[in-house]
Amino acid sequence: MANAHPPSPSPEHSYVDYAYDQPGSPPGTLQIRADAPPPQIVLIDYNAKTAVRQVIEAPEDCSPYLDTRSVSWIDIQGLGDESIWRRIAQVFELHPMILEDVVNVPQRPKVEDHEDQLVVVTHMVMVVPDQERFLQEQVSFVLGPNYLLTVQEEPRYDCFDPIRARIRYRKGSLRQRQADYLFYALLDAIIDGYFPVLELYGERLEALETKVTDAPHTKTLAEIHQIKRELLSLRRSVWPHRDAIAALLHKDNPLISTDVKIYLRDCYEHVVQVLDMLETYRELASSLMDVYLSAVSNRMNEVMKTLTVISTIFIPLTFIAGIYGMNFNPTVSPLNMPELNWYWGYPAVWLLMLAVASGLVAFFWRRGWFENFSPADSSAKPSG
Amino acid sequence: MANAHPPSPSPEHSYVDYAYDQPGSPPGTLQIRADAPPPQIVLIDYNAKTAVRQVIEAPEDCSPYLDTRSVSWIDIQGLGDESIWRRIAQVFELHPMILEDVVNVPQRPKVEDHEDQLVVVTHMVMVVPDQERFLQEQVSFVLGPNYLLTVQEEPRYDCFDPIRARIRYRKGSLRQRQADYLFYALLDAIIDGYFPVLELYGERLEALETKVTDAPHTKTLAEIHQIKRELLSLRRSVWPHRDAIAALLHKDNPLISTDVKIYLRDCYEHVVQVLDMLETYRELASSLMDVYLSAVSNRMNEVMKTLTVISTIFIPLTFIAGIYGMNFNPTVSPLNMPELNWYWGYPAVWLLMLAVASGLVAFFWRRGWFENFSPADSSAKPSG
Amino acid sequence: MANAHPPSPSPEHSYVDYAYDQPGSPPGTLQIRADAPPPQIVLIDYNAKTAVRQVIEAPEDCSPYLDTRSVSWIDIQGLGDESIWRRIAQVFELHPMILEDVVNVPQRPKVEDHEDQLVVVTHMVMVVPDQERFLQEQVSFVLGPNYLLTVQEEPRYDCFDPIRARIRYRKGSLRQRQADYLFYALLDAIIDGYFPVLELYGERLEALETKVTDAPHTKTLAEIHQIKRELLSLRRSVWPHRDAIAALLHKDNPLISTDVKIYLRDCYEHVVQVLDMLETYRELASSLMDVYLSAVSNRMNEVMKTLTVISTIFIPLTFIAGIYGMNFNPTVSPLNMPELNWYWGYPAVWLLMLAVASGLVAFFWRRGWFENFSPADSSAKPSG
Amino acid sequence: MANAHPPSPSPEHSYVDYAYDQPGSPPGTLQIRADAPPPQIVLIDYNAKTAVRQVIEAPEDCSPYLDTRSVSWIDIQGLGDESIWRRIAQVFELHPMILEDVVNVPQRPKVEDHEDQLVVVTHMVMVVPDQERFLQEQVSFVLGPNYLLTVQEEPRYDCFDPIRARIRYRKGSLRQRQADYLFYALLDAIIDGYFPVLELYGERLEALETKVTDAPHTKTLAEIHQIKRELLSLRRSVWPHRDAIAALLHKDNPLISTDVKIYLRDCYEHVVQVLDMLETYRELASSLMDVYLSAVSNRMNEVMKTLTVISTIFIPLTFIAGIYGMNFNPTVSPLNMPELNWYWGYPAVWLLMLAVASGLVAFFWRRGWFENFSPADSSAKPSG
Amino acid sequence: MANAHPPSPSPEHSYVDYAYDQPGSPPGTLQIRADAPPPQIVLIDYNAKTAVRQVIEAPEDCSPYLDTRSVSWIDIQGLGDESIWRRIAQVFELHPMILEDVVNVPQRPKVEDHEDQLVVVTHMVMVVPDQERFLQEQVSFVLGPNYLLTVQEEPRYDCFDPIRARIRYRKGSLRQRQADYLFYALLDAIIDGYFPVLELYGERLEALETKVTDAPHTKTLAEIHQIKRELLSLRRSVWPHRDAIAALLHKDNPLISTDVKIYLRDCYEHVVQVLDMLETYRELASSLMDVYLSAVSNRMNEVMKTLTVISTIFIPLTFIAGIYGMNFNPTVSPLNMPELNWYWGYPAVWLLMLAVASGLVAFFWRRGWFENFSPADSSAKPSG
Fold it and tell me: Family per UniProt (chains A, B, C, D, E) (predicted)?
């Protein structure tokens, strides 16, 4: 059965899937999970001419790069060690609330202005290659005048490799641009990452559609419910991106140039497309539930027809046979079952039974009840 | 069966039906399908006095026309050859994002201002003559000061022929007008093209309505689901047109004169009408699903009634026959089935059975259960 | 059956019910139906002192009246003759788009400013007296400085007669007022005309409600679907009136005086009332669909109970009878059916069967299954 | 049955429940019902020191009170006599549209500014003491500089008595305040009057909930539909109050002092609470419909299980009995039913039948089908 | 059964759950329940250096603290004694409407500006430790220049203890801040308190999901309805918080500093998260209702299949046995049941019956009807 439908691409977080503070704890309290990997810091510093990639050990080593006019991309993967995070906050002068948003994952995607920093929280989804499931993690951006800080939950494969390659091999105009363009490029990669996930769901829905009409199974129902639940969860993840990017477009912020806004507009279009499709999928899944219900009703109908046809044909016949199994004594009265002593009695009963059966079969035929039993020639009958 | 219902006018694109970039690819990356036809460029240059139609080989041949004061309509069909597209972008000074929108089809319909160019992305639908299906493709407009660039996906029959004729034969005021009016005329043709498609769906819905109440079939369900899916998809295609045209109306753009805006208002009205109707169709399709479910329930009811009527009439009769088929020995006791030796025994049993059967038939009759079996005179019975 | 429910007050236009141009045709193209009646023009010119009613043959005969300071109401009924319409457009200096809106019916209700003319498109509904159906046609208004042009689709009974009488017999203040007040009076008559139509639907819904709970029939379902469809269609017709009148209220237009706006506010209230009620009706119709489904389920339940009660009582009895119909040879063994030779054998079997039947009846009675069979005293049983 | 559920607190007006003019009648036409009681006018004139209550015979007798600086509350009950109403309009200088709103009941609740008068139309509901139903009537307010005119439909018990007492016995600060505070006090009494009505519905819903799960009856369905219909109607009555009071709060009107607006804000909160609860009730009623449907399905399931258990146990047994009731002649062949002559034949058949029956019972037991028959120990079985 | 699902975390207030005045009572009338505990007043006065906690006996004892520049937090628990409340109102100069909001619980959450006081009404939820239910009570805030008044319904465990500890042990920056920050800290604690409640519902929904697909029981339905009802009630409680906090963020109020607004933004994010999840839960609960309905249908299907399979196999067999139980007299005619005297008669009948049974079993097998009986190998069959 496992191969019959694509396995569930269930996201990692589910149900109560926002990080929340212990009620009453002071703002800025960090919630570090015990098994969270320690942060790995990679700095890429580039301008049109040179590009340096460096693995940073101590957060303070970033400081010299922040003052230069070249673009510094500090990519931190892993949320593990509170003391290191406190030092990172110091180096980048992060407001305690920013630190909380970045470390206490997952947060709702959003955009926040903090004087000379722009904080953007997003969710990245990645289809695991060759598997029909996807991973989801929070990616936070802190955009400063000449630097971009990105924070990912875990040090693993992300969707930023093509951009790292574009920096390294000078593909496109990325190297000539400022930090805001880098921010756009990464954001765009995250948004575009939703499309392959949507494709997974499209395939699953199509598989379910076939299943529902061809062979509805009790499990199909649970699958439809599951897919609805996941789409709800995904929509809840995507929807705030739309508002966040719209806020980026409409607010005047010196950190984002008008030129880059043209590109962000494209990003916005893509989020709207993703939402459009999610909405459509959700409506399709709801409709599938109805189709399933109808298909079950149809099958029940078929079962009932089978029972009814066979029962109503044989019950009268059995009654006739029962009549002539009675033991009325023909010797005490000429009225007592004289049929039993007729010469043609037995054949006559058979004829009677044949007539009754034929009549009923004809009745059912005319009402179109045999249709479902021979789907091949169903179109030949008057109705279904 | 294939002729019993109109074949599905399914659009060409479905499910994940927006073009999206490989996550992380630089903006402006073109995605040329291997089988895409190479672009065919046709230029029509006209003013009130003269009109020239010319097939262009090299994109650069357009340049001289762009500087003249006459209106130049450059119609490009086919998205095939990346190098040609790069040259086209050069000639028309297209921003990389414009080029991407135009070539990476399909995009969501939208309007974008780019300094002295106005980019409008639309979807054109065309009913294939004599077939009950329609084609859908993206048509992009780039409106410049004296020229209009239109880009279609494939070189085939489009809905612009009447406008080409109006230019050629000086029908209406088109030849006296500027490029913005040409743009309006083409946009209007695209919007009006949705009406025949709606008519197709109207006919399908009406056919389904008849089918659902007269002869609900298992396939009917799948058809309703299919039509809902297609209407969702169509609505997703039309809806952004509304926003796009509203943006055209409300933004001040020197490329579109106040005079033409009066005409665009008409265009807007038409999009709203299309959406109105799509919404109505969608609600009707949903209601049809309910009607179908009820119809299935009704049929099941009918099946159950048949079973119940025949079973409950014959089961007691069979029981009576069974009684007198017992072999109690009348010789050991006068109490042992003396009926078998009565003179009127057998006729009396028949009378008893007739009485039981009549009583049950009367019971069912009074409850109105025979109604469905003779629909012709169903109104004569008390209820249904 | 035809008399059992009020006949459908189906509007004249259905499904694709907006006029649309052949894609690509120039704006302003008129679509005159071959069977459309030629326009009949009636001019009523009045001021506080005098009132003249004149049937106009040639459109040009209106011109002298337009220049006077008295109010001229030109009422045109019939959309038949293109040449006359071109002349009308000339006389009243109508923009080609106005002419198109007025002649290519039906359009969506709307308000449009055209320099010194205000164009309002509305739909008039009229209940046909003594019949339970209504007619629907487009009425367009062109309000100029001293005149009001109204265009109706057909020369027949309309809802303007009371206003004609108010002009003729100086009822109310109409004769003292300007053209804008006349426009209000006519618009108000059109809006108020929706209430009797709503009353028709109210009655139909009430009739359906009774039917659904008392005697649900397969046709009832189709009727509910039909009423939903008509309410959707009616709402689509009413909704734009609301926006149109709101636009009249909020836009500053010299053609409409502040004084008349107080009256238009009343008109707006009425449209909102109509929409309120339509919305309520729609929700009621949806709820009726659910009630119908439940009623069908209830009836099926009743059918199943009948079958179950009779089957489960008689099947065990028949089994017992079958036992003693077996032919085991009592002579070869004292164990072989000695009951057959007992003195009280036959009565004992009857007692056994009575006991079984009574037990089952008691079982069903306690579960309340007999309730539905005697609705009169259903409240006496424990549950239902 | 009548006592089993609270009787329907059906409002007085239903379905087409707005007053509408005969289409085409002049604005301000009064629709006086023949059986409407003549207006009874009671004037209460008070200031901080004195308070006078006087029954007014001729409307003109109010005039002297209007000019004084004391607050005059003119309460008119009954809409009967057109000539008196014309005189009232004269005395209070009411615009014809105000008169129409006040007399042609019911109108949609609303607020309208008319120069130095503020017109507020509301609906008052009153639970009839000791009966589970409520009355609904329109109460209109005309607030002038020093007076407040209130118009009720009928001269009967209203919810203003506590306020009359507060004036008479100087309770609270009412006597120190202006007419706007009196207006607030009356409006607040009207709004608070909705809560007891809501409580009625809350009780009905709770009663229905119990009924639906414990003993779903066919009538329950009609009751749920009825309650939905009434809630829809009530919501339509309450909703415009919200907009009306919000308009009072946000518009600057010299007739309402800033001080009183603080109190009106409280009034607004209460309307929102009423709407909140209505919305919740409506969703609960919808959910109840689903619960009802499921409960019906569950009962059908139970019925089917009963039938299936008994049928499938006895049908095979009856078959076995039928076998040994066959009359094959054992004398012509040793193969012909030798069992009949076996010594242990009859007991062996009983054993066989017992084995079959036990096997089937065990099968059904394992599938948990007996659960419903003994709800007390249903948790002991594996599933249900 | 009680342990099988988490007990209902039903809130304390239900249905008509807003406090409302007796219609017509003067504003500011207090509704003190007879069993309400008398107010216990605790004052915490702190600045960066010192912090004093004092139990206040007479409200007037608070006065001296209000004039100091240190922050005074007056926490009142219990709404019992009207005279004390009147004195409290005097001391804090509370407007009668504020007093009403604070004492007449529950009110709808809201924010109100009153000159130099800011009133915020909120609902606090607390999960009872080790029990799967939560308490709900109103907490009102009155924020003045240097003080914060909080009013709780009952003197019992609340969620403010961590904040009291932060004041006492100088955790975080609370001691350095003003009253507005204290207000934020308490509000944040209240909002964060919703998350554990949501987690309870998440667990209950997950438990219901398992139950619905594995073992749907009649009670499951009532539980789903119950959870929907509670979620509706919870949403009605949370929703106004969102508007209230948004109002705090967007209004300029000298009592709340810009600095604290950054923190309130976080609070707002959390409310939106809570609403997001509530909405998702509600949709899941609705979907569960559908799943339940389908599961019931599926079980009915299974029951019907069992009945149909056994009935349709044995009914024909019984008929055959019935045939040979007839008593036609073979001696009067060679046509009368010669089979009974055949040598192979009895075995032949058995063969015939086996053939019929096998044919029917094969028929059902091919249609996949046996699938449900052996779920373990259900994937081996063609469909289901």
Answer: Belongs to the CorA metal ion transporter (MIT) (TC 1.A.35) family.
